[in-house]
Amino acid sequence: ENDIEAGKDSDVSPEDVSEKDEHFVHPSERFEMDQQATITLFQTQTISTPSHFSPPIPFMAILYSFLFIFPIYIIAQLYSSSMMEERTNRKCQLLLAAPLRSIDIVLGKTAPYIITLMLLVIIISTFIQQPSTIREVTTVFSMALIMLPVILLFMALSFIAAIFSRSFKELTFSMVFLSVIVSGYLFFPAMFANIHAVSAISPMTLIVNLVEGNQIDVNTYLFSTVPFYLVSLSLYGLGTSIFNEENLFSQKNLISKSLDSIEKFLEFPGGSVFTLSLVSIPFIYMLQLMFIIILFNLPLPYSILIMIFLSAFVEELAKSIGILTIIKKKLEHINLKKATLLSILAGTGFFVGEKLISV
């Protein structure tokens, strides 16, 4: 207060100060600067921050949601490194020789990591909510349920990266690349929570809404999380199909192992290019949503044209990958008639899957 009074009574004004004295601060301005310096990150501030933008960005809620992702990054890295070490040191060779199915081995190795992450998510949710009522306790478990598909996706990507990589160097690159892509998918839409419809595609938007005290319905939960569940299960299925000595201890490249996994799928009872198109839809769906996020800020009509081109490209690629596998692996004798029939089946599978999603 004395500083303010001194500033009012003083005959010195900023205009009277010599231009050479660049460090001069008027007493009234110094008081405001001192007040701002005492404000911490988690206190309400009077200066412009993202929370003061119009429309407001849920800055604090997004900051809290980051707390869920850091443990997932670390555990996923440990999980993939463990799988890779067992491959390089041939530690899992005894397990493969045991009377166990590949799915049993994969589940046994994966379950502890998922359980650990779920416990960490519940602890973090409890820290954020500090529940004292039944509703707040329900919110804690709702957060855990929302994060479950995110955990499954990170674990599935880590598993696939560990199976497909030929060295720790490739594994590190794959994990960093996949983590960046998934993080962008999760957090960029969440920045527009309650502002734009694009935010609904990310489970982190649901976390932001819960942190802000809003409620979510079942349809919103399913819309955000079902693609994560389906992609995770598909990745684990494809990875488990080649969880054998031939692929684990070989130096096959990414394309060869991908074709091997698709070959196993086609040889499985009920496997065909029709069902492969159905299985590929969640992947294409998430890729197209990612394209929307990436092209969100591009001006019209360029964003629409690029979006149409990229969407058509990935769809046709997904339809043709089964036919390519049949040709490369010589699963069937291919002529023009057979290729046309397979193309029709692949296209029909994709068409049926799209209609099921729209329903």
Form type: globular
Structural class: mainly alpha
- Count up the helices: 14
Give the tally of structural domains.
3
Q: Estimate what percentage of residues fall within beta strands.
A: under 5%
Topology pattern, helix = H, strand = E: HHHHHHHHHHHHHH
N- and C-termini, Cα separation: 67 Å
Overall number of strands: 0
Describe this structure in words.
This protein is mainly alpha-helical and 359 residues long. The protein folds into three domains: 2-41, no CATH class; 58-252, no CATH class; 262-359, no CATH class. It has 14 helices and no strands. It has helices at residues 2-9, 27-37, 59-88, 93-97, 102-129, 134-164, 168-190, 203-211, 218-241, 245-248, 254-267, 273-294, 302-329, 336-358. Helix 6 packs antiparallel against helix 7 (168-190) and helix 12 (273-294) packs antiparallel against helix 13. The longest helix is centred in the middle third of the chain and has 31 residues, at 134-164. The protein is globular, with a radius of gyration of 27 Å. 28% of the residues are buried. The model is unreliable at 1-10, 17-22 and 39-48 (pLDDT under 50).
Topology readout:
Blueprint: H1 2-9, H2 27-37, H3 59-88, H4 93-97, H5 102-129, H6 134-164, H7 168-190, H8 203-211, H9 218-241, H10 245-248, H11 254-267, H12 273-294, H13 302-329, H14 336-358
Helix pairs in contact: 1-2, 3-5, 3-6, 3-7, 3-8, 5-6, 6-7, 6-8, 6-9, 7-8, 9-12, 11-13, 12-13, 12-14, 13-14
